[in-house]
Predict the structure.
Amino acid sequence: MDSIQWRDMIGSEMMIRNAGVYLALAATLGAGGCANSVSKTMSTALASAPDWFDERREEVAGNGYPELSAIPPTPKKTSVAELKQIESEQDQLQIEAKDLEADSLAKSGIETGRESPTEWANRVRAEFPDEEEVREPQTAE
């Protein structure tokens, strides 16, 4: 290769390298400009925020709440009567759970007093007036 070809190759490589540098510089400046505009937008938004915003921001940040280390590790003392009531409720729930496991279609203790959807619909329909009762009487003029 003669010297002209070498110069052309070196020149084109330098041009590509310079273009890459300029592109990286432009991207950096563009990102910096975006970051600057975001901070301006945020400061404008914070300045025009409603009164309750600061309280809500504190709440979301978790400020003002007690530290977990400040909560006493000992549980609330319960009386013997309360413990017996809890045990009896637990026993009753275990009995209901066994009944439900034995028959999956069985009603739980809460459901026994409820009416079926069909009964409810019939009762509500009966509460509405008939069509004849709704019509207004026509007056003769």
Notes: The chain has five helices and no strands.
